[in-house]
Amino acid sequence: MNTTNNTILITGGSAGIGLAMAKQFSAAGNHVIILGRNEERLQKAAAQLSNVTAIPCDVTKLPEVKKLVNRLKTEFPRLNVLINNAGSAYVYNLLHGDNTFEKASEEIMTNFLSVTGLTEQLLPLLKQQPEAAIVNVSSIVAFAPSVAIATYSASKAALHSYTQSLRYALAKDTAIKVFELMPPLVDTDFSKEIGGENGIKPDVVAAALITGMQQDVYELHVGDTAQIYQLSLKSPQDAFMAMNSRS
Asked: One of 152, 168, 218, 229 is an active-site residue; which one?
């Protein structure tokens, strides 16, 4: 996959991994479109970038998504890369029933359903391009769930399953490549509650994505996620215990 001269849409592009991706793709000669719900934070992020367009959008709201897609078709008809990066996570104890339904509902909507919605809306435009890609930012907890983020883990398992099916479906009649990025713990505000300061830097994750896309590695296990993944193939129970021994 060529990683220059693309038009790239990144959801959750105003901070963390999304912003790191935006910086590196922009520096590599791509036009980057970043989405976010907080317009002030989005504009601050855009000020750090060149060749960027910042668009406020809540991808969990279908009317906003449809409005966005109509704008993209008109203003950015060469859009050929979609990076589904926006995420939501709650750290809580299932034993105490800490509003599990409400928290899980938000996580499933943001981490899974919004991805299917935006992807479906953009597929007609992506199909028109001679080379195109969809990147879904998943997590190793899709294979070995973390009890501390149990419903987040479930949402990423759903995303992993969907990504596999999407890749297979699009490979038949389109030029769209489907990548899945699985970062380990990353040092971002998003992961503060689970010890994110001990994680790798977002720039490392962004660089791994670019390298993986260049090499057409469709499932990218970044950092120590590769070890957990291999362990999950041998013994899902051992992978589960290894994941949860860290908490």
From this structure: 152
Judge whether 201 lies within some domain. Answer: yes
Domain that holds residue 80: 7-244
Residue 140 lies in a domain: yes
Domain with residue 26: its CATH number is: 3.40.50.720
- Note whether residue 1 is domain-resident: no
Inside any domain, residue 94: yes
What is the DSSP code string of 224-244? THHHHHHHHHH-HHHHHHHHH
pTM: 0.94
- Catalytic, 152? Answer yes
Give the span between the Cα atoms of 52 and 67, in whole angstroms.
19
Could you give the C-alpha distances from 40 to 6, 11, 119, 225, in angstroms and in order? 26, 16, 26, 33
Of 97, 205, 107, the C-alpha closest to 153 is: 107
Helix (H) / strand (E) containing 133: strand 132-137
Q: How does pLDDT run along the chain (247 residues), one tens digit per residue? A: 999 999 999 999 999 999 999 999 999 999 999 999 999 999 999 999 999 999 999 999 999 999 999 999 999 999 999 999 999 999 999 988 789 999 999 999 999 999 999 999 999 999 999 999 999 999 999 999 999 999 999 999 999 999 999 999 999 999 999 999 999 876 666 655 665 566 689 999 999 999 999 999 999 999 888 999 999 999 999 999 999 986 5
Residues 6+ apart with CB under 8 A from 23: 48, 49, 203, 206
